[in-house]
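Pasting as-is:
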Amino acid sequence: MRIKIKIEYDGSSYIGWQKQDSGKSIQEEIENCLEELFKKKIILRVAGRTDAGVHAYEQVAHFDLEKTNIAVDKISFALNYLLKKKNNKIVILKSEKISSSFDSRFSVKEKTYLYKILNRSTPSSLFKDRLWFIPQKLNLDLMKTAADTLIGKFDFNAFRSSKCQAKSSIRSIKYIKVKRINYIIEIRVIGKSFLHNQVRIIVGTLVNAGKGIWDKKKVSEILSSKNRCEAGPTAPPHGLYLEKIKY
């Protein structure tokens, strides 16, 4: 049977989702707990890999089991017990049986990424490694206007890292929403799939617009250039959250 799990994590102390030769990954920590629980090696398939330092409100993964004596909805509680024992900042929000045709990656219809910026003159002692601190006042209207030019289906080659392995840089963005709640600016980007660092480069570009460095026309020119060197900086990973996945 196929089991779907929803996962919340603080990515600050991990090398990212994907297990690697060295470093502590979210995937490996959960797989180790699955192996301890079911006494066999289990491979997790995930909706989308997150980089080092990136957080998740609701990541989704699946794995297959031949059989289990544990009630499926109780698997999350058992995993949380084991994860906590190993001092992980990972919580399994839900475990459920799902159709064998479900694939956590390929069944995705829409992903929502949230980026948080602390925009005030002083940093925060409470939200360290949770958002990007920018002391210079950002103009929200300029950021919203610049964001509008990136909504739609385009070649986003200017908005992906040099390490991106995607064969095509054509992507569709459903919408970008920018809002301020007191001192925190929230940027939500929604689409089916994203290039490596695409959301963080979009945020870095919108920040330049918010500072008055670039206008809407310039952002449009950056998109048309297809040149990564033209776009803004890659925003720090610790402000980024995988917020929601729609199937």
